[in-house]
Design brief:
The protein is mostly beta strands and about 350 residues long. The protein has 3 domains: about 35-55 and about 100-180, Immunoglobulins (Immunoglobulin-like); about 185-275, Immunoglobulins (Immunoglobulin-like), CATH 2.60.40; about 280-340, no CATH class. It contains 4 helices and 20 strands. The protein has helices at about 15-25, 295-305, 315-320, 330-340, and strands at about 35, 40, 45-50, 100-105, 115-120, 120-125, 135-140, 145-155, 165-170, 175-180, 185-190, 190-195, 200-205, 210-215, 220-225, 230-240, 245-255, 260, 265-270, 275. The strands form 4 sheets. Strands 12, 14, 15, 17, 18, 19 and 20 form a 7-stranded mixed beta sheet that branches. The protein has a 6-stranded mixed beta sheet with strand order 1-2-3-10-4-7, with no helix packed on it. Strands 6-5-8-9 form a 4-stranded antiparallel beta sheet, covered by helices on one side. Strand 1 (about 35) and strand 2 form a beta hairpin. Residues about 1-20, about 20-50, about 75-80 and about 85-95 have low confidence and may be disordered.
């Protein structure tokens, strides 16, 4: 890492992918994928299914499959699936190679913008419907291993935690990843609250989802509320149960038997006065090392230069403000960059 130049603005995807893979294991834990009849499961209970031509079952990406009862392929088809051309009588048809791609389906927040990344690069955005459902159909992939990530941004500009998962794509196969459940957004109305007063904890999730809120102190406190028809939830926490000092809160959602992961954690202080939380701007709150309201490979290369090196006085101040603040550059800082990544 020390060989990177401070002014090097081009960083290979391979290096970033290795670090992002490490970060995914430490910051966004993913269980090992297991397979049964082509179905894979992750920590979010997302599933991956490959369409198989000629198995007699009409699957994703197929209009028919020879031998199945609904939508049987015409006899004039040269092969069993309609991913191949069907010619007229006697002439036959030309062969069209099956599509190599990936389909992603899941739930975020109603009318929210959902962003899909492939190997740390934005490849598509979508708008969730009024029920919070979203879908991506990515074609033209090459066979191989990829790191896909997805996040959403609610109506107030609050970003969800980054959900990251590895996907193996086989040439000629469309892989489907379903049941993605993006964690809720979360915020508080005070950065400091007088002990005994209420602090509002709120955010957005799937409409009518059951929301569990966790507050970390010497012991963890849990509370429950329900999101409204627009996915917005609110809980007023009485702080008489909390000791003086710093606390963290996070939330998760449950709907129709599915449970999201926890949101990112937000902090607040219990003390002797109330201080309103400053509304964040559209610029990333952290990780924007060159102050251009973006977090991308330029910022990554700057951090990479200082990895395992003593920090200069100037950059030490930047690291304290925009990264972990521990006076060094390591995987914790890169995980912060991954969370605020804009591309």
């Amino acid at each position: 890492m020390a060989t990177f130049s401070y002014h090097n603005k081009i960083l290979t995807t391979t290096v970033f992918l290795i670090l992002l893979t490490l970060l995914s294991g430490s910051v966004y834990p993913i269980r090992s994928f297991t397979t049964s009849n082509g179905v894979y499961a992750s920590v979010q209970e997302a599933s991956t299914r490959s369409s198989v031509c000629g198995n007699g079952v009409k699957e994703s990406g197929e209009q028919c499959d020879a031998g199945e009862s609904n939508g049987s392929c015409p006899a004039t088809c040269s092969t069993s699936c309609t991913t191949n051309s069907c010619g007229g009588g006697g002439g036959g048809g030309g062969y069209v190679a099956p599509v190599t791609g990936a389909i992603f389906n899941g739930r975020a927040y109603p009318k929210s913008t959902v962003t899909l990344l492939k190997d740390a690069q934005i490849v598509a955005t979508a708008i969730a419907d009024t029920n919070a459902n979203f879908s991506f159909n990515i074609s033209g992939l090459s066979g191989g291993n990829y790191i896909f990530s997805v996040y959403s941004e609610d109506g107030q500009g609050r970003r969800s935690s980054l959900l990251t998962f590895p996907v193996t794509v086989t040439s000629g196969v469309t892989v489907e990843v379903g049941n993605i459940f993006i964690a809720p957004t979360i915020a508080v109305d005070k950065s400091e609250v007088k002990q005994g007063d209420n602090i509002a904890i709120f955010g957005q999730s799937v409409p009518k989802a059951d929301i569990t809120i966790q507050v970390s102190s010497e012991e963890d406190f849990f509370a429950k509320t329900v999101a409204d028809v627009s996915g917005v939830y609110l809980y007023n926490l009485g702080t008489e149960i909390l000791d003086y000092g710093s606390h963290f809160t996070k939330s998760k959602a449950a709907k129709d038997g599915e449970i999201s992961s926890f949101s990112r954690a937000v902090s607040f202080l219990v003390d002797t006065k109330n201080v309103a939380k400053v509304v964040p701007t559209k610029c990333p709150a952290k990780a924007d090392l060159n102050n251009n309201c973006r977090v991308n490979l330029v910022d990554f290369s700057i951090a990479a230069y200082w990895c395992k090196r003593p920090l200069s006085v100037l950059f030490a101040a930047t690291e304290k403000e925009k990264l972990n603040g521990d006076g060094k550059i390591d995987l914790v800082d890169f995980s912060i960059m991954a969370f605020y990544w804009t591309g």
